[in-house]
Amino acid sequence: MTVSLFANNSNRTITRQEAANDLEVYFKIIDQQHGNPYQYISREAFQNFVNDQIEALPEAISLKQFEVILSELNNQLLCGHTVVKMESKLLKSTISQTQFFPLPIKIINDQLFVDFEKSIIPHGAQLLSINKVSTENLVAELSKITVTDGFSPTKPLREIESKFGYYFFLKYGAANRFDVQFKTAEGQIKDIQIEATAGNSMLANNYYRPINLSHERYNRFTHLDAIDSLQTLILTLNTFRANPDWFHEKVTSRYDEETKEFDFENLVIDLRINEGGDRRLLNILYQFLTGDKLNDPSKTYTRAQQIQMEEYVSSINGRLKSDEAFSHANDYLQKYFKTEKEDHFEAPVLNWYDEFEGGEAKNWNGAKFGGKIYVLISGKTFSAAADLARILGQMANVVLVGEETGGAHVGRAANMIVNYSLPHTQTSLQVPVIYEEFINVSDGNVGRGTFPDYLVQPNLDDLMAKKDAVLEYTLDLISQNSNYGSN
């Protein structure tokens, strides 16, 4: 049932030479600009991957096919902040079409299960094939076009779950309806045809919210819930792209300035679908939890003292291409990264959170919270959220619950983000310029994320019971601790 719904969009073809040129430009940008492109793969091996893809190009290739090839190449870097995607107008045009698989899925042991009630395919059913594509190796195939930091296996899984229809479209094409074979919870194998959905609705609503995300706190950027019987406050932070003033205001409302006490004894911080953003919020959180300003020193370096391949730059740190944006970025690089080494420029060991001092930063001036802290993490816990989990996880009164984060524990390229547009496909390429290696960590997690103290993984019983297993496990831990400490 695959159809060509948009011949003038992502199915538009370019020549072999145009595609080859874009792949060559991609390699040059990565090679010259990326903060540490060869952390997990040698330059020679990566260049060979690029050359092999160029050799294998057909005489004509669609933009969608090109993005799959480029995504699989990009995956070799194992850098979660290095991202490729369709040119923005083409992406908007594409996802406006009704051509995407319509159901949210849950990945359990690399198998796909329906995580939705309002469907003719029952909740909890195992998907066996979609438009004759077997799901047996589907997770492994789709993982090749995602990104993650190092070898953390969890981020690709959660990424596929949240955008399954889009990844399936990239790899296997558009459809206005899908022939699906599935197995019910009772073991019956059935075949059915379901209608496609529009991609923009699917992505905006996170697939109409899988069952375990239907609670109000997952429909907002941030939320507070109180469980009075456990003297527990649940702080849900689904993004760090929100204004830090929100957190400051909300926490202040739970604090008595006269008695210097909070009205709760346990704090749960839910970071499971938080992919990062504004790192100023980490400053406030850390002050609130410890009474001290955040000190997280790191060794940093960049491969160039100025922005490279200027003719392809579209924006720098979210600012559209301009002389001012280039000047600001280059001045910053030359100010800090002065020590020249063989293939990079180093900055002194610094606590980069000092950069947030001044008028832009909020400070917590009350007493620190001295109770027990439970941090919920998953593969979607990434970038600044993964940093927070790593930093808090070193504290004696903090317990991490869930699964390995998708953000690197020891070090990753993530700072100063430059966006490029490839010349023929206009494919967008996001490149982190600065590599950061954290000082206050052990070397045991090299190439991996931050691990939980209590591992709670998804299983079919929890899915069928519509159970938020990580949160329930955490509340059980709290309830077992009947002697609440004083804050």
Automatic annotation (TrEMBL):
<dbReference type="GO" id="GO:0006508">
    <property type="term" value="P:proteolysis"/>
</dbReference>
<feature type="domain" description="Tail specific protease">
    <location>
        <begin position="235"/>
        <end position="417"/>
    </location>
</feature>
<dbReference type="InterPro" id="IPR029045">
    <property type="entry name" value="ClpP/crotonase-like_dom_sf"/>
</dbReference>
<protein>
    <recommendedName>
        <fullName>Tail specific protease domain-containing protein</fullName>
    </recommendedName>
</protein>
<dbReference type="Pfam" id="PF03572">
    <property type="entry name" value="Peptidase_S41"/>
</dbReference>
<dbReference type="GO" id="GO:0008236">
    <property type="term" value="F:serine-type peptidase activity"/>
</dbReference>
<dbReference type="InterPro" id="IPR005151">
    <property type="entry name" value="Tail-specific_protease"/>
</dbReference>
